[in-house]
Amino acid sequence: MALQEELKSQGDFLFKYRSYLPFGLLLAGLIFMVYNAQNISAADETWLMGALKDTAIFIGLLGLLVRVLTIGYTPKNTSGRNTSEGQIADSLNTKGMYAILRNPLYLGNYLMWLAISMLTGNIAFILIFTLIFWIYYERIVFSEEVFLRQKFGQTYLDWAAKTPPFIPRVFNWKAPNLSFSWKKVLRKERNGLFALFLVFFLFKTIAKYATDHTWIIEDTWLIYGVMITGAMLLILKIIGKTTDYLNEEGR
Question: Residue 58 sits in a domain of what CATH number?
């Protein structure tokens, strides 16, 4: 098989199972956190390690914001999670977040998982994670771009020629055709905020126990965050199961 076809085949496979990548990151990150907690005391922690841990939640929220701004403006059957049917694109997104970069959802994913890796306070781990993420998603993007090029032809090529794949070019912003839809965001991204706070809570709890064998969490804001976002998620799931309130025509 030629390299181009091999990359396409790998990308199709990774696209289908891309939701499983985070589990490996979580396990590796927990191992690093436990190791640091048991071998590096608070007095020995460098300012960089502390800064990485303290700013991690903001990076994670930034990643979620990127996803929200992307999904809130997109029509139905674009930027979705419909992996069982393969890749779907009824139209080509070229405005809003898609005017400043070609893969805004993957940038959002990277920032959210970067935040988790930052909790380790370990630069080596962060760099290794970034390399793995790049190799993993590079193949997915390659597969997607083959699909989009075949479906939209010159229109896609013209857009891709002026739109960077991953690093935003913010001055390229163009107003989306559709208005922002909170209903679509709440329907599609309702798990994200709770998952972010829950993972942070679990990491902090395990690191605390590894340090002094107690389960006391000093970051009360994190406890409240898990409770509030968990309640929000439950309410949204009930609304989604029992009503059509979050559904919108064409979104």
Answer: 1.20.120
Residues 98 and 167 sit within 8 Å (Cβ to Cβ): no
DSSP 44: G
Q: What is the pTM of this model?
A: 0.87
User: Angle at the Cα of 188 (from 186 to 190), degrees rounded to 5?
Assistant: 50
Contact predicate 149/157, CB 8 Å: yes
pLDDT in tens, 92-150: 889 999 999 999 999 999 999 999 999 888 898 999 999 988 888 888 888 888 888 88
Percent helix, strand, coil in the chain, to 5, is 70, 0, 30
Question: Rounded distance, CA 152 to CA 157, Å?
Answer: 8
Q: How many residues would you count in the chain? A: 251
Q: Which residue has the tokens 């970067």?
A: 114
Residue identified by tokens 């999904």 is 71
Q: Of 25, 21, 29, 23, which Cα lies nearest the Cα of 136?
A: 21
Residue 83 is predicted with a pLDDT of: 47
Q: Do the domain assignments include residue 236?
A: no
Handedness of CA 80, 59, 61, 171 (dihedral sign): negative
CA 43 to CA 25: how far, in whole Å?
27
Range(s) of the domain holding residue 144: 3-181
Look at the chain and report how many structural domains it folds into.
Answer: 1
Task: Note whether residue 37 is domain-resident.
Answer: yes
Helices (H), 119-189: 123-152, 154-162, 182-188
pLDDT tens digit sequence for 194-236 = 999 999 998 888 888 887 778 777 788 899 999 999 999 999 9
Other CB atoms within a 10 A radius of the CB of residue 217 amount to: 14
